[in-house]
Structure formats: C-alpha cells, structure tokens
Specification:
By secondary structure, this protein is mainly beta. The protein has two helices and twelve strands; from the N terminus they run H-E-E-H-E-E-E-E-E-E-E-E-E-E. The longest helix has 10 residues. The protein binds copper (II) ion (CU).
Length: 337
C-alpha cells in the first residue's frame, strides 16, 4: 500500500509554484530526468525543505535545512549508484532544468556548491564531506519588483553553474540550490536542492574553499532566514560561505552579495518598521486556495493547473484549480480536469 500511494504521487507530479530540478540541459536539450541528477524519495517531489524549528504544519515530508536532506534532497544517496556521472571540462557550464514544466516563481537567490568524493567515487559518496561554493546569484534587476522579477532566477526553469577552471580533476557532487525567501520574514525560507554527479576533467590545481558542511552552512538565525522582501529593495545577505575565488583557499566568512552595490549586511533584528505590513502568509495573485478540510494545506499555494493534483489523502498542496474542476479519481488522488 505504501508503494501504491508513492507511485500515485509520482504520477501526480505537476507544474506548481514549487519545483525540483530533475534533468541536465546538454547541447540545448533537456535529457531524461534523473540521469545525472540523483533522484530522491520525498513523497511530494516539489516540496521545499524547511528548518526543523518551523511550525510542524509548515514542514514538508520531514525534510530539514538543518538535516541531511539539505545536501541533495531526501533519500538521494539511495539513488547514487544508479545515477550516471556527467563528464565536464573545468571552466565549462552545467545546466539543470526544473521538472514537469515548472518555473521558479519564488523570489530568492540561487547557489551552487561542489564537494569532492573520497576516492573520486561519487557513486559511493553521501555528501558528508566538505563543500565549497562555486557561484551564486541574487538580484539582477534592482529596479524591478523586489518580491518577484528583481531576482535573477524569477520565472526561469534552468540554473547554470560554471565549474571553476582551477577545480582539480576528480569526481564531485555538484549541488544546485534555489531558496524561496518570500516567507523568510517569518523565519521560513524554502530550499530546493538537487545534486548532479560530475567528473571534472581538464582541471587545474586550485585549492577550493572556504569549506562548509551540509547540514551546517545554514542556521535559522542567519540574516537570510529573517530577511523581508516586503517594502522595497534591500541588500540581501547571501547565505553560506564565500564563493571560491578559483585559485587558493581563503579563510573567509560571508561574502558580500556580488550582484548588489550595497555592502552593508541587513541586520538580523526583527523589523519594526510598520510600513508596509508584510503579509502574514504568502502573497497570492491567483484566487485564494480553498483551505477547508485539507489539514496542513501549503502556506504557499497557488491553485493547481489543468491536470494538476488538487487533493487526496496526505496531499498538502493546492486544493483549488486555476483551470478545470477538481475531481476525485480515488481517495489518494484528485486532479484538475
Ligand atoms: Cu513556496
């Protein structure tokens, strides 16, 4: 029975305000899902990862930013042996794409990390070693809406990381992360992560760093986790370590956000300014989702799209349809038809 529910959920993966990375774009074409990206086991693939200190009803699939699932998503190590290793030249790009036609319609930064596999055997590596950051992007258009399209990744369906030319040859986990910060003002950033298994060739002899552990790189007391996007542009305190400069290791701490001219970090103190009042829940532009009956309905739902899932036992996503009518197929699955 557990398996039948899981497979129904797998079938029900649909475009959503939430998302997951499942394929690599190679020579302009997205490949088969989970070829080089480790598949993961969370019940609802597109669900975000949250802090264990967040209210229980807001946590999804028991995945925590301060737990092992923050490495490569829930249960991803189980898929390691069955995931191919993508060969990539140092200095080259790796692009990942969201599954099921989703787009990143949450404001927030994107970050890229690598961790070298012991013995250069990434298929046997659980990600418990040292991680370094190879890139990040935050605000690309300061004049745009800071709650939406000011962010580089807004409405995109791909992320691209460049392997630093100085990266030594070897096998690595390459971790892509997008963080939705629309609810950071209530200490609830949402992390979306996937790992690609890569083999770097033609590399250099740099010494990557600074190093962090996952979990460990993010804390619920970090400024990014308390940041408010409401009330106009503010310099965003990018979480995690400084981006590796591509040469030697540096004993640095937080990096100033490279996309923003201001360097003063946002204080982590709670905002007291009364104007404008941040929304208690996620701002909605689409019709308010029906919340009746579906205990634990997602605090950041839009209505489900046509053919999207809109209900069923254990479902915590949107229970309304932006197109079509929500029809029950069976007790575990309702769909917008
Ligand atoms: Cu969300």
């Amino acid at each position: 029975m557990k398996f039948s529910v899981a497979s129904l959920v797998a079938v029900a993966q649909v475009a959503s305000a939430h998302y997951f990375f499942d394929s690599n774009v190679i020579n302009g074409a997205a490949g088969r899902p989970f070829t080089y990206i480790r598949d993961f086991t969370r019940q609802t693939k597109y669900n975000p990862i949250k802090f264990s200190s967040n209210p229980a009803q807001d946590i999804r699939d028991n995945s925590f930013i301060d737990g092992d699932d923050i490495r490569c998503n829930q249960g991803a190590f189980k898929a390691a042996g069955n995931t191919d290793v993508l060969e990539v030249g140092a200095g080259g790009d790796v692009t990942v794409k969201l599954g099921v036609g989703a787009r990143m319609e949450h404001p927030g930064p994107s970050l890229f990390y690598m961790s070298r596999a012991p013995g250069d055997d990434v298929k046997a590596y659980d990600g418990s070693g040292d991680w370094f950051k190879i890139g990040e992007e935050g605000v690309c258009n300061q004049g745009a809406d800071f709650t939406r399209d000011a962010w580089c990744s807004w409405a995109r369906d791909t992320l691209t990381a460049t392997i630093p030319a100085g990266t030594p040859d070897g096998e690595y986990l390459l971790r892509f992360e997008h963080i939705g910060i629309h609810r950071s003002h209530v200490n609830q950033p949402e992390h979306y992560v996937s790992c690609v298994q890569v083999k770097v060739v033609g590399g250099g002899n740099g010494t990557p760093g600074p190093m962090v552990k996952l979990p460990g790189a993010y804390k619920d007391s970090d400024p990014y986790a308390k940041f408010s996007i409401y009330g106009g542009f503010k310099s965003f305190p990018m979480p995690g370590p400084a981006v590796w400069d591509g040469t030697s290791s540096s004993a640095g701490g937080q990096t100033p956000p490279k996309n923003e001219p201001e360097t003063s970090p946002t204080p982590s103190a709670p905002e007291t300014s009364p104007s404008p009042v941040p929304p208690k829940s996620e701002p909605e532009t689409s019709p308010a989702p029906a919340t009746g009956g579906d205990k634990g309905a997602s605090p950041c739902t839009k209505c489900a799209p046509l053919y999207g899932r809109c209900g069923g036992r254990g479902f915590t996503g949107p229970t309304c349809c932006s197109q079509g009518t929500c029809r029950q197929s069976n007790p575990w699955y309702s769909q917008c038809l």
